């Protein structure tokens, strides 16, 4: 009788064969989950590598930070995905579903990282850079008994100031509404006198000049009305975005901070009431702040004849302010930063306030400041930096307080907790600041600070002068309050700038 007992053995046993033959075969759904899961895992891995390469190319965080995050992310991803990837098909469709979901989550994470990095790129390399067009607002003024509206000017005589660099643009814009003839005057004083004497029917004037009138002849504001306003995109001057050659993290540079005396859009021209030079030496960790009073009596760059108040340079554009400041200290200015009231408020609030030292006990606009450190929010910091009437030193003390605010901002912004959010901070401020510092230079400085944790020494100084009443280039023969430079203090400032910058 033939023995029907199946052969024994681990490999060829009948029992093993029976088990394999009884195992369920992979169905179409399981195969679909396998294909989708592995495809998503592969795409997620490639996306992760691509985002890491993109962030490395942007150079927005230190490489060693990026390397650490990459190793950690890859280790976690591989530890989770590889076991699921290697699972055999039969009976394990659920595992491929989990693999697909995890891969999809990883893909979404890489997408979000890419979008965040792109936002930083756009902020650093586009939005905070100097706009190609600076908007200038023009007003048409007439006496109170004149008919309303620009249409009422048809065929009439309109006064204008010959020193205004954007007159052709303004004339062309007004011509789109009404046809007029023009009479030119050499100064703001003369054009206002012409209107009051009815030598002209109206005046076409840069809106920034109205602040000069408020200062020089405040009664004029009650004698005119505005028939209409419009904006033109100024192309009269430009400051190109520069790229340092080469730009090492230890390179010294000189920056100019210009604070315009208005709220709203940073793209509009206005007087520069804050004028501070910032000399930075990363190698020594030394920063020098040099305040130049707004009423400093200087020769505006490229002009002849009468000198002018430094604050009036801003009316002619940031270029005029930069070049005039450079002429004063005989130093090339590498970068500039232009801000207004909104910028100060937003930045200070964004970083949770600042601790500002006050040398005086005073109250301004309902806010009381004590001698010593005061923790200030955005509005309070603006009040602190604008007040001058509470002090016998007037604008001199205001300039010192402005330097104190900048010193406090430097102390706060160089902390790692703030530096790691540099991109989001700049993104929030992008509509309220203007600079020509390239984005890669900004991130180079941020990376160097994150890597070294350097402690900065801030030195403050101010040039000084003697008060006087003199005519100005912008306003004309009528005397205005100015500050005649004390050349000894200017010479001292030049020497300290040279020392800090190693020039």
Output the keywords.
D-Maltodextrin-Binding Protein, domain 2; Aminopeptidase; alpha+beta; 5-stranded mixed beta sheet; 6-stranded mixed beta sheet; 503 residues
Could you provide a short overview of the structure?
This protein is α+β, with helices and mostly antiparallel strands. The chain is 43% helix and 22% strand. The strands form six sheets. The protein has a six-stranded mixed β-sheet with strand order 16-11-6-7-8-17, sandwiched between helices. A five-stranded mixed β-sheet has the order 3-2-4-1-5, with helices on both faces.
What do you see in this structure?
This protein has 503 residues and is α+β, with helices and mostly antiparallel strands. It folds into 3 domains: 26-127; 134-234, Periplasmic binding protein-like II (D-Maltodextrin-Binding Protein, domain 2, 3-Layer(aba) Sandwich), CATH 3.40.190.10; 253-501, Aminopeptidase. It is built from 15 helices and 19 strands. It has a 6-stranded mixed sheet, sandwiched between helices. A 5-stranded mixed sheet has the order 3-2-4-1-5, with helices on both faces. The longest helix is centred in the first third of the chain and has 35 residues, at 93-127.
